[in-house]
Structures are given as C-alpha cells and as structure tokens.
C-alpha cells in the first residue's frame, strides 16, 4: 500500500479546514500540509450557508449600534440556555471580529454601507445588529475566498475526492489515517504528526434536513472509533424555515431584514410566544412556536406536510434582490413561489449539530495530536442552542486556532512515527471484502429507515418511551448494516460503497443522539422533553459525553461540568 | 399530472460506454437529480454521478441533459422533452458514468493567481479596506461563479485547445482585477495575456449561455483582452 507522508493532515476542506490550512501555512511555510476531502473543497457544505457571520466590529470600522463583546457573549450564552462553556464563548467573541476583517483582507466581498464600510444585519437571538453578510450567499463567498487563498501556498497539497476510512493511533497519540482515492479506486495510508478533523455536521441522519448529501458525521464516527469522546450529542438544531418539499433553507436573514411569520389566519403568531423579539427570537423557541401553531390547527395543509408562511413581500423587490437574492432564487426554483409576490411556505427542519467531537479551547481532543474544529467539534460555544451566524464565525476562529495548534504540535513532535503494517493490511482486506460482499441488505433501504426513525423519535419534541423505541430501532439497523451487500463492486468512484460507509457513520451518530437524549431528563434549548418540560440546573447543568467502552462496542456516558465565568445561570427570558 | 412512465436515457461508462434506459414514474415537480437519486435507490445502485447541496450552489451535479450543459438539481423533468437524455460534461475525460475529471480546469484557475494582494498591508486592527456598493457592483457578476465547469463543457475552444485557460478561469481573473482593493492586477494580467491566456477565445458566448449563475465569462474574457491590449501597448511605449 502506498504511504503518503506529511507533517499535518487536515480532514475536510470546508470553512474550518481551509481556514486551518492557511493558518498553518502562514505559521510555518516549511511544513508539509495535506488537505484530504471527500469532495472538492468548494463543494463542501459551508458553500450553502446563507445569512451571515456574527462578530462585534469595532466602532471605527462599522456602524455597530453601541455593541460590545460582553453583549455578544451574553446573547450566545443565553441562547445556549446556559450550557455553553463561558471561557470558550469569551474567547470566541473576542476573536470573531478579527477573523471577519481577515476575510475582508483576503477579498471576501462583504456587503457594504454607502460609505464603503462593512454592513451588518439583524439575526435571531442577537440583541443588536452584528451579523456581517455577503448578500445571502455568505458561506459561498467565504468558502471560495478561502479556497482561492489556499492556492497561494506552495506547502498546501490537496487530496480532493479522497474518503477517509479510519484514523490511526498508537498507545500515545494519533499517527495518521487510511483513505481511499475515489477516482483511482486505491487505498493509501497517510502518515502525519498531527491530524485535524474538520468534517462538518451530520444533518443527514434526518430525512427532512437543510443539509447537503455529504453531511454524514464521518469525523464524529472516526474520532469515536479511536476512543475520543463525543459531547452534547442530544442537541440538534431545527431551523424554523425550511421549504416543505425539499428542506432547502430560507435564511434567517429573511426575518433579519424584517420578514414576518404568519399562520393560516394571517396572524403574526410570534406575538403570543415571544412578544419582545417576535420573529427574531432564537431558533429553538421559534421552531417550537411553529409546531404549536400547526398542532393547534392554525397551519396550512400541504402535500409535504403542514406549514406556516414566511412573508417578505413588504420588503419590496429592490431590497429582496439586493440583500436576499438567493431566497428569491431558491423559493422560485424549488418551491415555485416568487417571494416578491407571494408568502413562502416554511416548516421547521433539521439543520445543525451543536454537539460533536469534544475539544477544548485549543481545539485539542483527548488524544494527543488529534484536533477538531468547525461543526464536527464541540468546544462548546453553542451549548443547547446555537445562535444563527455564530457557526461560520466558529469555523474561522477555531479553524485558525486549530491550524496554529497542529503546526505547533508538528514542530514540537519530531519523534518517528511507525504505522502498524498489520493494521493497514487489515483495513485494506476489510475494504476489499466489503467491496465484493454479497450481503442481502441495501444501503438505500437502511438509510431511509434510519432517517424516518430519527424524524419520529429524535425530533423537536421528545419523550422517554419514544426515544427508547427509536434507540432499539437504530441498534437493530446497525446490526443489519453489517450485512450490507453492494451491487457495484468496482473500486473506481464507487458511490454506493461510499454511501454504505457514510450510513454506518450516521448510524453511530444517530445512536449517540438518542442515548444522550434519553439520559438528559430535562428540557433545555433545542432538547425538549415533554415528560420533563422544565430546565433542571440541579441535575443537568452539565455536559454529557459518550465514549466507546473498553473491550466491547457499548457507549459509556460520563458527565462534565459547565464552565461558568461571569454569567450565573438564570431563567432564559427575552 | 399523468402517472405514466418517463424514460431516462443515461450515457454510462466504466471500461466502455453505452446508453442505458431507465423508466420512472413521471412527476412534473422533480428534478433530473431527484430522478437519478430515485433510480439509484430503487433500480440501479451502480449508476454514478456527483451531487451534494441539491440547491444549485455547490456546483457538483453538472451534466449534459438533452444536449445542454446544466445543473441537474435545478432542471425539472416537467420542462424537458422526453425521453430525457443525460450525458457527462463534454471536453473532460470520463471517469465513470457522469463523473468526469475536472482537475485541469481547477489548475487553470490556480494559474490566474486568484487571491488578493496589497502593497501596504493593513493590520487587522486597522479594519477593512473600503469598498462602496458601487465598487462592489463591479465584481458582483463574475464573483458568482460556483466552479461547476459547465462553461468548459460548452466552450468550443477549450474542446480542441487544452492550453486555453477557459471561461471560468478568465472570469476569476477578471473578478480580482475588477476589485478596487486588489493591487496585483498587472501581474495577474500578465499571466492571462501570455500564450496560454485569453486570446484564443473566439467570443461565441456558449459559456455565458451555459452559466447557471449568469456570470457571463465571455464578457469577462473580452474585457481582459481589452485590458491586455492596453497593457501590451503601454509596455511597448
Ligand atoms: C443551509 C445552511 C445554511 C447555513 N447558514 C449559516 C449562516 O448563515 N451562518 C452561520 O454561521 N452558519 C450557517 N450554517 C451552518 C454552517 O454553514 C456550518 O456549520 C459550517 O459551514 C460547517 O463548516 P465545516 O467547515 O465545519 O464543515 P463543512 O463545510 O461541512 O465541510 C466538511 C468537509 O469535510 C470533508 N469530509 C467529511 N467527511 C469526510 C471523510 N470521511 N473523508 C474526507 N473528507 C471528509 C468534506 O469533504 C468537506 O470538505 C448553515 C448551514 C446550513 C445547512
Ligand atoms: S447538487 Fe449542488 S449544485 Fe446541484
């Protein structure tokens, strides 16, 4: 088997991975940096992010409404239902503005005020306007700017369309990974001093999701399988406004610019739930409000389920075309509705993973040399509910930290690494066997059952017996997945094979979500237990983590305290 | 609509190429990508194509449908003549079925140095470089490129001359040269007016017709030619 050597391996070419690569390259131009990504970096899911990126720009640079770091921190912590680690949040809000300006210096075309300064818009749960944007294609512009920037550095080498199969470690630290070159159909081992996981979220475990096809939680599964714990997995964010047929997102920016949510009686129903914030409340509260309206019979009935209206007609064609062009584009293309003339049908949709690979402020995991950043990581700044536009900022802030950390780690650890030949041979044999295996189960069938199960048992509202039933189904599906047979036996660009591996990763993540959901007997942020409707700080002001038991494959739960610096938990009032 | 079957004809390739016909239930409001996903899940797991975002922004799902290069996730069955014929992008080597090798086009993009340079760097604490909405407008159109490579598939020149930098790389060069904040315009222009550069573009405009994001690479190339001529003239003086 081919062995490819580098100093640093970055798995993932989305916002977090590319930001890390640039940080490492700038820190030390001598380091050999490899980016391994299952899609071309510009195809990564960051490209779909729409609304914006949060950060308190200093007064001299922008109209900032008298904003402060303190306020951004408090909004984030209150939004998290007091589960965020406050030291992480303080660091995050301090660094976010620098990263936004850095992106500008690299050419990212942020939308502007007439005077040439960077513009900001309102976003849910943010008490003032502090979300910087590039029309409503923020993630697209960020990702392409970052990608183009990476082309400048001779020491960054890309391995596009390589699928990472397994991480390698010895007793003390990470040593590399094994990946498949999808185009050539060959397997290779990568050897490196430090590895960064920047593999994104896992929204595809649900059937109704805003997430792209590639968001299958691979990094979470890869980390878990070499003994690194996952944290806060019960917290999955449901975005209030997805298009009913496809789940495609209508950005919160639409409400940020002044859009209304209306029920079937034409009422702005948020006045009954959150009168001080109306449509600009945090996502967990708005998603639950929409579900209550629908339950009470005040939603519209449609072929793809019940929905409510998002109305932006009053903003006018000019503003819509200037600031929300993608909203108009996707509503027309994918729902057949022109929002300039008609309200947009929307309903809550699975969107974002607050939980993930447990890391600290320096992006370190529990395994020496292994780091994680971006949506796949859990630092945690998002706690039980992320505020919109914080996650792109998180990708940049902790992507940069991770990039500097992997560079430093590689510089300081020059001990020779030995990859275990046996392990590599075993993995190669396993993959070859799987490719030719004639099992009776089909990927598509199992995937659909998993997604249905998660919709039914791990949705916006949860309850003990239902979670338990869901867990049993997922465990059963994991067993059946061992007997997947492929119809496509070719090693070349075998997307059926990739889907099978992704499915196994998703099933692992799904089990983790359900286990943690079962363990958390309270309601906090996005995790709503109808059998425990209140927040219970006494028992649950803490993080739940899951790790693989030694010797068998069962999941073990441990608990970790929440770091509180300045803001004592209080009732979450708006 | 009628529940009658519709025929989908896919050009397949692994070690040799052939057309395969699939039949699915016709639905007006599904896309070509939905149709392929349905075939892959229910009839033939070996059918191979790229996709991810299914919302026209990641640029993965490019193919030639009924003779036209399009994004499959944005192309509705209801608007197509039947049987629907799906083929891989032209002008690129085929790897498998609809998956083609596009590394060459990505390398072309790298060749135009698509990143911003400043002579005198501002520190981050000094804030942003200013850009008015009017200045932003100048790069808006070309900055929309999603690198889906439909334009390379449509380009007759790239078809026979692989040295030509091609439409998207030209648009990308223009995007940075149209940006008031960038200060490496001359160097970039020099790279695109060299022999592999922009001159071969015959301005047929097929690339602009194919672009799903209305980038108009043909116009960008035309403008680069103009800038290039001016630069050549001034450098002779
Ligand atoms: C529709 C939508 C809109 C959003 N809008 C906003 C917004 O306006 N503001 C905001 O702050 N946040 C937004 N978010 C959230 C935000 O976009 C994401 O959290 C963020 O982009 C994640 O970036 P990432 O770098 O962590 O991962 P991604 O961009 O998902 O990249 C993951 C990378 O990992 C690679 N990878 C994964 N698995 C493997 C493997 N096994 N082998 C090799 N490579 C692998 C992939 O190829 C990819 O390059 C939005 C999310 C969605 C779904
Ligand atoms: S799937 Fe992303 S553009 Fe079509």
What does this entry look like structurally?
- In chain A, helix 12 runs parallel beside helix 14.
- Chain A has a 5-stranded parallel beta sheet, covered by helices on one side. Chain A has a 5-stranded mixed beta sheet with strand order 19-17-12-22-23. Chain A has a 4-stranded mixed beta sheet with strand order 1-10-9-8.
- In chain A, helix 1 (15-27) links the parallel strand 2 (8-11) and strand 3 (33-37).
- Chain A has helices at residues 15-27, 69-79, 86-105, 138-150, 218-225, 253-256, 283-295, 316-323, 325-335, 390-412, 421-436, 443-457, 464-481, 495-519, 537-540, and strands spanning 2-5, 8-11, 33-37, 53-54, 120-121, 131-132, 156-160, 162-169, 174-181, 186-191, 194-197, 230-231, 236-242, 260-262, 308-311, 344-353, 356-358, 370-372, 377-378, 461-462, 528-529, 542-548, 555-561.
- Chain A is α/β, with parallel strands linked by helices.
- Chain A is built from 15 helices and 23 strands.
- Chain B has 237 residues and is of the alpha+beta class.
- Chain B is 35% helix and 15% strand.
- A 5-stranded mixed beta sheet of chain B has the order 2-1-5-3-4. In chain B, strands 6-7 form a two-stranded antiparallel sheet.
- In chain B, a hairpin with a 2-residue loop joins strand 3 and strand 4.
- Chain B starts with a strand and ends with a helix.
- Classes of the chains: A alpha/beta (574), B alpha+beta (237).
- At the A-B interface, helix 3, helix 4, helix 9 and helix 12 of A face helix 1, helix 2 and helix 3 of B.
- Bound molecules: flavin-adenine dinucleotide and FE2/S2 (inorganic) cluster.
- Residues 11-17, 36-39, 41, 44-46, 48-53, 138-139, 163-164, 198-201, 210-211, 214-215, 218-219, 249, 251, 351-352, 374-376, 388-392, 395 of chain A line the site of flavin-adenine dinucleotide.
């Amino acid at each position: 088997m081919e062995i490819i050597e580098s100093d640093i391996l970055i798995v993932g070419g989305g916002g977090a991975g590319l930001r890390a690569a640039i940080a490492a390259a700038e820190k030390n131009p001598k380091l050999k940096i490899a980016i391994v990504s299952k899609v071309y970096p510009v195809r990564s899911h960051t490209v779909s992010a729409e609304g914006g990126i949060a950060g308190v720009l200093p007064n001299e640079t922008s109209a900032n409404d008298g904003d402060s770091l303190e306020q951004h921190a408090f909004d984030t912590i209150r939004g998290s239902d007091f589960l965020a680690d406050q030291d992480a949040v303080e660091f995050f809000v301090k660094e976010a503005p620098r990263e936004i300006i850095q992106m500008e210096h690299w050419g990212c075309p942020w939308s502007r005020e007439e005077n040439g300064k960077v513009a900001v818009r309102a976003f849910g749960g943010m008490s003032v306007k502090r979300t910087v944007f590039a029309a409503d294609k923020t993630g697209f512009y960020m990702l392409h700017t970052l990608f183009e920037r990476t082309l400048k550095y001779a020491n960054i080498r890309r391995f596009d369309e390589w699928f990472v199969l397994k991480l390698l470690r010895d007793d003390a630290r990470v040593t590399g990974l094994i990946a498949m070159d999808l185009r050539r159909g060959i397997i290779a081992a990568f050897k490196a001093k430090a590895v960064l996981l920047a593999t994104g979220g896992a929204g595809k475990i649900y059937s109704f999701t805003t997430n792209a096809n590639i968001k299958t939680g691979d990094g979470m599964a890869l980390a878990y399988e070499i003994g690194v714990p996952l944290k806060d997995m019960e917290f999955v964010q449901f975005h209030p406004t997805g298009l009913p047929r496809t789940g495609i997102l209508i950005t919160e920016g639409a409400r940020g610019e002044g859009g209304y949510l209306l029920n079937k009686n034409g009422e702005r129903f948020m006045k009954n739930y959150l009168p001080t914030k109306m449509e600009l409340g945090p996502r967990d509260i708005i998603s639950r409000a929409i579900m209550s309206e629908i339950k009470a019979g005040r939603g519209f009935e449609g072929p793809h389920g019940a929905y409510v209206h998002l109305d932006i007609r009053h903003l006018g064609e000019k503003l819509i075309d200037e600031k929300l062009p993608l909203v108009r584009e996707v509503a027309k293309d994918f729902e057949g509705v022109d929002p300039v003339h008609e309200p947009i049908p929307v309903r809550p949709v699975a969107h974002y993973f607050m939980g993930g690979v447990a890391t600290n402020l320096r992006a370190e995991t529990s395994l020496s040399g292994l780091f994680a950043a971006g949506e796949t990581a859990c630092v945690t700044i998002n706690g039980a509910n992320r505020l919109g536009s914080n996650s792109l900022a998180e990708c940049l802030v902790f992507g940069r930290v991770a990039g500097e950390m992997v560079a430093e780690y590689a510089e300081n650890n020059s001990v020779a690494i030995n990859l275990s030949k046996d392990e590599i041979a075993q993995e190669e044999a396993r993959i070859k066997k799987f490719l030719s295996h004639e099992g009776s189960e089909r990927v598509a069938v199992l995937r659909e059952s998993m997604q249905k199960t998660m919709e039914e048992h791990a949705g916006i509202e949860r309850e003990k017996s239902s979670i338990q039933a869901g867990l049993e189904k997922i465990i059963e599906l994991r067993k059946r997945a061992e007997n997947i047979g492929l119809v496509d036996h070719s090693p070349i660009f075998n997307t059926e094979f990739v889907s099978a591996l992704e499915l196994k990763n998703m099933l692992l993540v799904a089990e983790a979500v359900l286990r943690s959901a079962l363990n958390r007997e309270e309601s906090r942020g996005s995790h709503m237990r109808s059998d425990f409707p209140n927040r219970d700080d006494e028992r649950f002001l803490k993080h739940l983590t899951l790790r693989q038991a030694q010797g068998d494959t069962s999941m073990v739960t441990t608990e970790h305290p929440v770091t509180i610096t300045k803001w004592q938990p209080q009732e979450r009032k708006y | 609509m009628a529940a009658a079957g519709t025929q989908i004809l896919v050009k397949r390739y692994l070690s040799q190429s052939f057309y395969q016909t699939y039949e699915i239930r016709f639905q007006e409001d599904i896309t070509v990508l939905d149709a392929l996903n349905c075939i892959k899940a229910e009839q033939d797991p070996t059918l191979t194509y790229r996709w991810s975002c299914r919302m026209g922004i990641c640029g993965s799902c490019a193919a030639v449908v009924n003779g036209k290069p399009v994004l499959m996730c944005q192309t509705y069955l209801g608007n197509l003549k039947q049987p629907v014929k799906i083929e891989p992008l032209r002008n690129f080597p085929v790897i498998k079925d609809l998956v083609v090798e596009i590394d060459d086009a990505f390398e072309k993009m790298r060749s135009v140095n698509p990143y911003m340079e400043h002579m005198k760097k501002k520190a981050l604490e000094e804030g942003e470089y200013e850009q008015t909405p009017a200045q932003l407008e100048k790069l808006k159109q070309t900055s929309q490129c999603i690198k889906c490579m439909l334009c390379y598939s449509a380009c007759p020149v790239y078809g026979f001359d692989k040295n030509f930098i091609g439409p998207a790389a030209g648009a990308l060069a223009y995007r940075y040269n149209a940006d008031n904040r960038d200060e490496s315009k001359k160097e970039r222009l020099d790279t695109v007016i060299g022999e592999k550069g922009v001159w071969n573009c015959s301005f047929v405009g097929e690339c602009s017709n194919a672009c799903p994001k209305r980038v108009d690479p043909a116009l960008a190339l035309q403008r680069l030619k103009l800038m290039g001529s001016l630069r050549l003239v001034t450098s002779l003086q």
